[in-house]
Amino acid sequence: MSQVNDEKLQLFIGKMLGDLGGAFCVPTTRIGLRLGLFDALYGEGPLTVEDLAAKAGGLAARYVREWALAQAANGFIDYDPEAETFSLSPEQAMVFAVKDSPVYLAGAFGLVAAMIEGEKMVEQAFRSGTGVHWGDTAPCLFCATGAFFRPGYANNIVQNWLPSLRGVSEKLKAGAKVADVGCGVGFSTLLMASAFPESRFTGFDFHAPSIEEARRHAEQHGLADRVRFETAKAKEIAESDFDLVSSFDCLHDMGDPRGCATHMRRILKRDGTWMIVEPIAGDKARDNMNPIGRLYYNGSTMICVPTSLDQEVGEGLGAQAGEAKLVEVIRAGGFSDVRRATEGPFNMVIEARA
C-alpha cells in the first residue's frame, strides 16, 4: 500500500461526513414531509418550535425542536438562534413545499427509502446474476418513482418536450391517438390528456398495481372518459395505428429494448412519432462522473439494472446508457430518422420516425 497523503485523507473524510449527513437526513426529511412540517413553515413568518408544532396539527414540541434543528443543520430550513425561530426561504420552499415546482424533491427521498428497503434482494442478485422483479424491491417503489418524476413531467412534457417534436403538438391539438408505453402510475399520460382534450390516450404498463393506481388517478382527475390504462408488456400491445407513442424514463429498464423498438414501429402509423425520454448521460462513463451521473448510477444499480435483468433478454442498458447506445437500440427497431429533439438538466428527449 502506498503512503497515505494526510491532506487528501482529510479532504476525503470531509466529503464523507457531508455524504453521510445527506444519508442521515433521509428519514427526518421524510417525517417532516409526511407530518406537514415543511408545509407549516411555507408562507409563514419565522415560527417558534411551539408555534410550528401547533400549526402542523398539534405535534409534540420536543420532537419538533430536534427535527427543526436537524433540518437547520442540513441547510433545509433557516434558524435564527437569537429569536429561537425557524423559517423556510423561497428557495427551500421550491424543493420541500411547492408541489408543482420543477425541483420539488419529496419523491426523491421516498425513492431512497425504497432502494434501502430492497438492499437485500439486490445484494442476492449480485451473487446470482439474476434480476429483481419490478415492485418486489419495495412495496412503495412504483409510487415513489411516480412521485420522483412527476415534477419534471408537470413542468416539461407539454411546455418543452412535445413542442420539440416535428408536427406532434399540432396533431394532438386536432385529435390524435396516443400510447404512453411504460406509463407507471399514469402521471405522464394524464398530463398530456389534460393539455390536449381532442386526443385519446392509452397508458400501458406491465406492472398491474401501477395500472390500478393510474386508473384511480384518471377517475380523480375526471379523465377516465378519454384515458384508458391497460396492463401489457411493451412487446405485447395489441392495438396499433397510433399517431404518437411516448416512453418516459423506461426504455433502459426493459429487458428487451430492441424488441420494444421493433414493436413500437409496428404499432405506429406510417407518419407516426415515437418520443423516448431518457436520463441525461454522456456516451462514455467518464463523462458521467458528476452529481447527476452519481444519482443515476446509484439508482440504476439498485433499480434499473435489476429490473431489466429480471425480464426476457435482460439487456441491462442502465440509466446512463447514453445517446449513442439508445439511438443504436432505436434504429435496430426499424427507425431511420432518429434525433435528440431537446434536453434538460436531467433528461434527453429522442424523436424517432420511420
Automatic annotation (TrEMBL):
- InterPro entries, alphabetized: Methyltranfer_dom, SAM-binding_MTase, SAM-dependent_MTases_sf, WH-like_DNA-bd_sf, WH_DNA-bd_sf, WHD_Rv2258c
GO MF annotations, alphabetized: methyltransferase activity
Which GO biological process entries does UniProt record here?
methylation
The S-adenosylmethionine-dependent methyltransferase Rv2258c-like winged HTH domain covers which part of the protein? 30-95
Question: Which SUPFAM superfamilies does the entry link to?
Answer: S-adenosyl-L-methionine-dependent methyltransferases, Winged helix' DNA-binding domain
Keywords linked to the UniProt accession: Methyltransferase, Transferase
Q: Which domain of life is it from?
A: Bacteria
Where is the Methyltransferase domain positioned along the sequence? Answer: 173-280
- What name is this protein filed under? Class I SAM-dependent methyltransferase
Which organism encodes this protein? Candidatus Rhodoblastus alkanivorans
* Lineage of the species this protein comes from: Bacteria, Pseudomonadati, Pseudomonadota, Alphaproteobacteria, Hyphomicrobiales
